[in-house]
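Protocol step 4 of 6: structure prediction from sequence.
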Amino acid sequence: MKNPNPSWRYLLLIILAGESVFFLPYVLVRVFRPTVLEVFQIDNIQLGICFSVYGFVAVFSYLFGGPIADKYSPRKLIAFALWLTSIGGIVYASYPSYTVLKILYGYWGLTTVLLFWAPMIKATRIWGGTSSQLKAFGYLEGGRGLFGALLGALGVMIFAFFMKDNNSTGLNESRDAFKYVIYISSFIVAFVGVLVWFFMKLNDEQEKKVVLEKITLSQIGQVLKLPSVLLLMIIVLSAYMGYKTTDIISLYAKEIMCYDQVESAQIATFLLYARPVISILIAVVLFKFEGGLLLLGGFVISFFSALLFALGIISSSTTMLFVISILSLAIGVYGLRALYFSVMEKGQIPLIYTGTAVGLISIVGYTPDIFSGPIIGYLLENFKGEQGYQYIFLILAGFSFVGGAASWKYHKLYGNKIYIFKKRKITK
């Protein structure tokens, strides 16, 4: 299919939307996990259950959100998703009960997945065309990472400003400070939605090329039979487990490395800055390399990084090793996020069915949203100290091994543009 050639502004708005929509449910917890546990008066298991509620809703949202993304304009779906997500921030800032918090995470599962996820991936493929997919997704992930790091740094600055004494802060003071972080984040999310609505536009001819009048169950079945779709389910599942594991870095810094709340949040924010650097380097330097081999390399790095934590050799007295380990983990995890959807073009997945394919891949690929939270919470609460963290990183090593095997298979099928499987024609 001919590339519609939307402008750089189009990609920039995808980037801003792609990170801001997940800031309230995910990034705030990644940066402020110890604070979130304190101000909401919950433990790791309860927080994990909130993410599971999100995950269960997300699974059904992926199923229906994919075909929706193929039927309606990405611009409209993305804008509404941002506005509805920001409304949830008002509830979040009220420090609701645990029951309401679970409902809120279910609501965010709808707004960030049903209306947003597949449209974002499809919009990125539209920008990348037939020849610049790795660049498109590298810039997307790098830009999202940079924007997320900036938002995280802003959040830490706001939080630190309203904290009078980090060593003797009470619950009420922590809540007051964190409330400002939530409100400002919600406003940013809503404002990005306004920008998307007015400026992320395709012309009528471009719109017709990427939007279907309808999609049938038969077409969905044909997409599901594509070997690339089945392999990407495994690859995304394995890679996303690594990304979910980074949620505990700030808590690891506090409990194992003995940092205070602000310092642990700064460690998590520092880690976020590795994400744009890694992703943009992939887009600029490694774009000529074969995607399947790059995926394999990412899983190998993730595997050995996880082993460094799992072996228990990192402690409060090995600060440099801790820094090296989280940077190594970031290279593997964030590199994989920049890569796995970039190989859809080479895997013979038609652009016009991107939403459907992404929905099917995501149903399996993002199931860690369901099970990783409770598993991580259980291990941290029942195996105190470093032991619980070791088990978590051992699980990550196992997923990295499986993902590496699937990436090698993907490379063997599609790596040299010699297609073993006959190209499937999806009938309308």
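Step 5 (inspection) to follow. The chain has one domain: 8-414.
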